[in-house]
Amino acid sequence: MDELIGIDHLTFTYPHTNESTLENINLKIFADDFLLIAGDTGSGKTTLLSHLKKELMPNGHRSGYITFQHQDISKFTQLKSAQMVGFVSQNPRNQPVMATVIEELAFSLENIGCPSQEIGRRVAELSNYLGLDQWLHKRVDDLSGGQLQIVNLASVLILRPKVILLDEPTAQLDPLMTQNFMTILSRIHQELGMTIVMTEHNLAVPITMANRMVLISNRQIAVNDTPAVVISQMFQKAQLKRFVPEIPALFLRNYPQAGQLPLSVSSGQRLIHAKNLQFESVNSDLKTAERPKEASTIVSLKNVSFTFDERQSIVDHLSLDIHQGDWLTIVGKNGSGKSTLLSLIGGLRKPQHGRINLAGKTVWKMQTTERIKRLSFLSQEPSLQFGNETVFKELMVQAKQLGITNAESRAQKALENLRLTDLENKNPFDLSGGQQQLLGLAIAMIANPQLLVLDEPTNGLDPNTKHLIGEQLLNYQHRGGTIIMATHDMAFAAAFSGNCGFMFDGRLESILPRRRFFSGNFFFTTALNRLLRDQVPDAILVSDVRAGKGGAK
Amino acid sequence: MSRISIQKRFFFHIHPLAATGYFAGLITLLLLFNHVSIVLTAFLLIIFLNWFYLGIGKVERQLKFSFLMFLTIVVFNVFLNQGTGPYLWQTSILGLSFKLSYPALLYGSVMGLMLVEMLMAFVLFNSILTTNKLLAVFSPVSPRLALLVVLSINLVNTFNLQFKRLVLYQKTRNVDPFNGSIRKRLSVGMHFLGILLEGALVSGMERARSMDARGFGATKRSHYRIFKWQFSDSFFMTSSLIIFLALIGFKVGSFGWTNSALKFNGSFSVADGWILCLLGLFLLIPVISEKVADLWTN
User: Fold this and answer.
1) How close, in Å, is residue B25 to chain A by CA atoms?
2) Which segments does the entry list as coiled coil (chain B) (predicted)?
3) Chain B contacts of A82, Cβ < 8 Å?
4) Could you tell me if A345 lies within 8 Å of chain B, comparing CB atoms?
5) Is pLDDT of A289 > 70?
6) Best of A97, A98, A367 to mutate (most B CBs within 10 Å, chain B)
7) Nearest-CA distance B287 → chain A (Å)
8) Is any Cβ of chain A less than 8 angstroms from the Cβ of B82?
9) Residues A314 and A460 in one domain
10) Number of structural domains chain A divides into
11) Average pLDDT of the residues in A114-137
């Protein structure tokens, strides 16, 4: 196979740090590879990816060589670099520069001086190939995150690069859009033979598409092999175990020697049938607290309707009672109205009709100081809730707003609980997306409110951090707190929440205990439930099942 | 009966250079004359133009938005120019006298209306000259600068959206720019500006990286959309230019303009009549062109 990219003895250290981020990295990427780079947060995945494109190389001390088609990558002209290596970043909203989709597609070609007719031809060709022709004149601001990420990919693909680099491209997308995006990526790889190099935390889909996987650990490449081999090795490491997706985790846990490790539901089913593998239910230690029988109603919504433009109701005659100690998760695709509903419950918006009561009082009529003592809200974009110079100051200011007497010790405790102590003097806007999420949660929880309203609290987080958040929220619930959460993270909802409901057509449909909710669904459920619904219908998590008696080991 | 979308109008499809020339002329002419009847006529015709192309909803929003500015200008003029009568009203409070001067009220109203006209003309300009047309006009001069100007214009919309979301979510921190004393609201407003700028800086750096990664600055930029000059553009430009030059002639002759607020009055001369007609015609050129274009429809 043709070597496309060669990395020889790359060592890199960021400025003002003593320890290197990458140590003696050696890696060859071949034409037609689909390479997945995995590793814990802070392991250097993004740093390694950034080194594969001249314009993205971070400042710092670097030694070693990076070549592209055997030429030093740092000697490339900008024009050549743009046409050889494409890059799609994590946040879909931070890439587009033009107002409409067609202008965004043309932007890249205008940059390289492509003649007008050629631009027209390429835009027509690509938009037909990717099915973007219906969106061409839409404003970029009106697109969803998933649609935008596809446009971002197209604006890079239009330059016809040899390799595309993607840095956690699906971190902020819902499962449906993730699937759409990954399907397009698969097409590009298989039909066009394009080389793909991708970093990702959410490995469930990429491992089924990649032909190679690299694990970065302790600043070095720990494993460089097929996804099945790398995943097996990740399963052996305590700090990486949670990164292993459900399907391979199921087999590694129960039938490690059964054969070729299945990575998808379909390959799992094939192995189960081929080897007659049996699974049975385990009495799962139900983590969610039982609601006390006499639990009072904390939040009550009566016939609530809300619209932005008087044409379509986002929330339509919705009635709902949430009791103390509940953890309600609202699922639904982007644009279904989850965030709007949460902002209504949080008292941030007022519905045109209906009432929302929090502990007996109309939520939007409460004094703000009283409301923030009883109810904490975490938005999808936590940075919109920041406003102080340091992480510690954010918590102190909030504690003082709430009239907390031992503000400093409470703030310190909040930092410790969410592992933010090392970042206490950092500017909140300099934090990574995941760290901002944790800070937002710390600010929300410092009040120890009656009700926590959380909008996509696990957005962009790695599995270990998600678990940390889940445990913190469970502790809060055990102490009598109530949680209302919107998420499209099925695995998180299945692992931690109490009840779940669908947001659809302006209403919350079929609110059920999580186990019944997920096991009763066919599409919106966990991969494990899809795999084992015939054998263990109620199983939704890997921990819900074990190897059955009589099955091959 | 549903409105015809602006994208289907003749005026939307004229060459960007012709549209730029027209709006440059329009803004200039709105600044050249401050006779009451001329300004009032221009105001009413601008409202008509905006209604014709953008719809009544947008016109109402624009008028609501600019009413406070209009009022501010009138109030300032009335307070600062109390020297010349006739006086409509006089009063004295705590030893301080106030005289509502008719010329000052008239002058302030005219100045206020001129500002509102400019704002409404600018809104129409934004709707007709979209960013890709602006690029087409300025790219031959400096492609990179043109793009950066267009990016800045696009960012205004993003800034507005972010501001609204910031106002919403900062309520969770008990920070509300619409409650409290004037001083507190100003302080919160400045605080929000700081947050928006920080956020814009972070996302701006990522966006800049993405632009670099896609070859921005690598070579001279080309342009996707090419606009061809048509006969209708020549007709539009020529008629606009003739009327514009005629009006400039009137201005050179010092017609239609009063320098001092104290001498302001509503007297009307023949020359003012000519200016009024010609300015009205200039403002109506787009609508007349629509009707002429309709005659050429198959």
Assistant:
1) 27
2) none
3) 213-215, 218
4) no
5) no
6) A97
7) 26
8) no
9) yes
10) 2
11) 93
Whether the CB of B209 is below 8 Å from some CB of chain A: the reply is: yes
B60 CA to chain A: closest CA distance, Å?
A: 16
- The pLDDT tens digits for B56-104 are 999 999 999 899 889 999 998 888 877 777 888 888 888 888 888 888 8
Domain region containing A202: 29-38+73-242
Q: Distance, in angstroms, between B170 CA and closest chain A CA?
A: 5
State the pLDDT at residue A288: 47
Q: For the segment A307-341, what is each residue's pLDDT rounded down to a tens digit?
A: 988 778 889 999 999 999 999 999 987 778 899 99
Q: Which residues of A touch B174 (CB under 8 A)?
A: 368-369, 372, 401
How many Cβ atoms sit within 10 Å of the Cβ of residue A353? 14
Kindly determine whether residue A368 and residue B220, on different chains, have CB atoms separated by under 8 Å.
no
Q: Which of A196, A219, A242 is the last residue of a domain?
A: A242
Collapsing DSSP to helix, strand or coil, A323 comes out as strand
Contacts B165 to A, Cβ<8 Å:
381, 384
Lowest mean per-residue pLDDT among A64-78, A335-349, B57-71, B264-278 = B264-278
Size of interface A-B (CB pairs under 8 A): 150
pLDDT, position B259:
65
* Together in a domain, A451 and A303: yes
Rg (CA), chain A: 25
Q: Are residues A347 and A444 in the same domain?
A: yes
pTM, 2 dp: 0.85
Q: Which residue of A has its CA nearest to B165?
A: A384
**A49 belongs to a structural domain:** no
Q: Judge if A343 and A237 occupy the same domain.
A: no
Q: Residue A510: inside a domain, yes or no?
A: no
Report the residue of chain B nearest A161, measured CA to CA.
B214
**C-beta atoms of A55 and B225 within 8 A:** no
Tell me the pLDDT of chain A averaged across its residues.
91
Q: Quick one: A458 and A322 in the same domain?
A: yes
Q: Report the complex ipTM.
A: 0.86
Q: In CATH, what number is assigned to the domain containing residue A210? A: 3.40.50.300
Residue A59 belongs to a domain: no
User: Got the DSSP string for chain B?
Assistant: -PPPPGGGSTGGGS-HHHHHHHHHHHHHHHHH---HHHHHHHHHHHHHHHHHHH-HHHHHHHHHHHHHHHHHHHHHHHHH--SSS-EEEEEEETTEEEEEEHHHHHHHHHHHHHHHHHHHHHHHHHHHS-HHHHHHHHTTT-HHHHHHHHHHHHHHHHHHHHHHHHHHHGGGGT--TTSS-HHHHHHHHHHHHHHHHHHHHHHHHHHHHHHHHTTTTSS----S------HHHHHHHHHHHHHHHHHHHHHHTT-S----GGG------HHHHHHHHHHHHHHHHHHHHHHHHHHT--
Q: Are residues A110 and A227 in the same domain?
A: yes
Residues of A (356-395) whose Cβ lies below 8 Å from B: 368-369, 372, 376-377, 379, 381, 383-387
CA angle A176/A181/A186 to nearest 5° reads: 125
Final residue belonging to a domain, choices A468, A497, A526: A497
Residue of A nearest to B164 (CA): A384
CA distance A222 to B16: 58
Asked if residue A491 is part of any domain, the answer here is yes
Q: Considering CB atoms only, which of B130, B212, B226 is closest to A55? A: B212
Same domain, A180 and A325: no
At A286 the pLDDT is 44
Please check whether residues A180 and A117 belong to one and the same domain: yes
Question: How many residues in chain B?
Answer: 298
**Quick one: closest CA in A to B131, which residue?**
A99
Residue B144 has pLDDT above 90, yes or no: no
With CA atoms as reference, the chain A residue closest to B179 would be: A368
**Predicted confidence (pLDDT) per residue in A199-255, tens digit:** 998 899 999 999 999 999 889 999 999 999 999 999 999 999 999 999 999 999 999
Pull the structure tokens for residue B55: 């719809």
